């Protein structure tokens, strides 16, 4: 690796040391108190909050392309031609764009509960002048934490018969198996990969199991889900005030959007309960410096890779 490359899968500091320091700080003790009066929000309120959020950030200054994704999840860059990716919770397109840029024949189906987000993503990606952009980027509106994905992704009949038969481990590798699942007349036959990047934390905790189960249901057997989201004791968690808590490790901002902070055990339990197999799961700990304020920031994310069994 040359000196110009950035190491994103980083271990700038030890998470256990950070945990001990934070848990021993008396000014932060309110983060760890039990929470019993958890309020549930409706899907309509979630969508409305995120519509307002993306409308406020429509100038493009908020957009930051996640170019690290192809390094963190190299399967996205080395996949077969015409592989299908479902970007679950696409936001302004910061995840979809580097995937489309990294592989000219990959197709990205991108959903979000916010129509404003879909509009921003479409504008940004169409303006990128990528090869065959309009045919490779296919946005649609869906809150998969409250309702199933549309049947054109994978119909009920194909869900039931999605197990691939006559598999010989000695003769076929993963790419051969995934690409052997053909599109049918009624649906696209599922997707090869799902990306869940800083999306699940915005879903109310009680709706997370359904969201993950839906991702599982549209994956082809052997397909992978790539996960990255806020980790426990991330700097942004510690900035929330006590009155912003709406659940255990769950917070709501003044604009109505929410954020949850995952431990490895919580993420593991959620994905395994849905039927996934754990491939990778760890904290990504990045130390950055705000030169203007001369302040060091400790960022914590959870990096995960999960597979749907054959």
Task: Write up this protein.
It contains twelve helices and ten strands. The protein has helices at residues 15-23, 43-56, 69-72, 75-78, 96-102, 115-126, 133-136, 156-160, 174-179, 208-218, 235-239, 264-273, and strands at residues 84-88, 107-112, 137-141, 191-197, 219-230, 245-247, 250-252, 258-260, 277-290, 295-307. Helix 2 (43-56) runs parallel beside helix 6 (115-126). The chain is of the alpha/beta class. The two termini are 35 Å apart.
Low-confidence stretches: 1-9, 164-181
Kindly report the CATH topology.
Rossmann fold
CATH architecture: 3-Layer(aba) Sandwich
Structural class determined from secondary elements? alpha/beta
Oligomeric grouping of the chains: single chain
User: What number is the mean pLDDT?
Assistant: 84
Task: Return the domain count.
Answer: 1
In total, the number of strands is 10
The main pleated sheet reads as: 7 strands, mixed
Topology as a string of helices (H) and strands (E) = HHHHEHEHHEHHEHEHEEEHEE
Instruction: Indicate the CATH class.
Output: Alpha Beta
Major β-sheet strand ordering: 3-2-1-4-5-10-9
Strand fraction band?
A: 15-25%
Count of DSSP-assigned helices: 12
CATH superfamily: Vaccinia Virus protein VP39
Pfam families: Methyltransf_23
EC number: 2.1.1.-
Family: Belongs to the methyltransferase superfamily. METL family.
Function: S-adenosyl-L-methionine-dependent methyltransferase.
């Amino acid at each position: 690796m040359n000196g110009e490359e950035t190491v994103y899968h980083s271990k700038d500091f030890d998470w256990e040391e950070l945990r001990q320091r934070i848990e021993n700080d008396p000014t932060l003790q309110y983060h760890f108190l039990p929470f019993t009066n958890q309020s549930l929000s409706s899907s309509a309120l979630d969508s409305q909050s995120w519509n307002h959020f993306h409308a406020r950030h429509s100038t493009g200054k908020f957009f930051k392309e996640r170019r690290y994704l192809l390094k963190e999840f190299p399967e996205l860059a080395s996949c077969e031609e015409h592989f299908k990716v479902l970007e679950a919770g696409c936001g302004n397109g910061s995840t979809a764009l580097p995937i489309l840029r990294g592989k000219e024949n990959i197709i990205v189906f991108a959903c979000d509960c916010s129509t404003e987000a879909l509009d921003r993503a479409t504008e940004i990606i169409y303006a990128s002048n990528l090869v065959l952009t309009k045919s490779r980027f296919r946005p649609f509106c869906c809150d998969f934490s409250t309702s199933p994905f549309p049947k054109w992704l994978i119909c009920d009949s194909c869900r039931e018969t999605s197990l691939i038969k006559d598999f010989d481990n000695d003769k076929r590798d993963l790419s051969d198996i995934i690409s052997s699942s053909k599109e049918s007349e009624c649906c696209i036959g599922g997707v090869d990969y799902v990306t869940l990047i800083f999306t699940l934390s915005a879903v109310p905790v009680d709706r997370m199991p359904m969201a993950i189960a839906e991702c599982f249901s549209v994956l082809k057997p052997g397909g992978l889900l790539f996960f990255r989201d806020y980790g426990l004791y991330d700097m942004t968690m510690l900035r929330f005030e006590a009155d912003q808590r709406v659940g255990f490790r769950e917070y709501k901002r003044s604009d109505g959007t929410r954020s949850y902070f995952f431990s490895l055990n919580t993420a593991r339990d959620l994905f395994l309960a849905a039927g996934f197999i754990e491939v990778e799961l760890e904290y990504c700990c990045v130390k950055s410096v705000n030169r203007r304020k001369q302040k060091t920031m400790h960022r914590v994310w959870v990096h995960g890779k999960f597979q749907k069994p054959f």
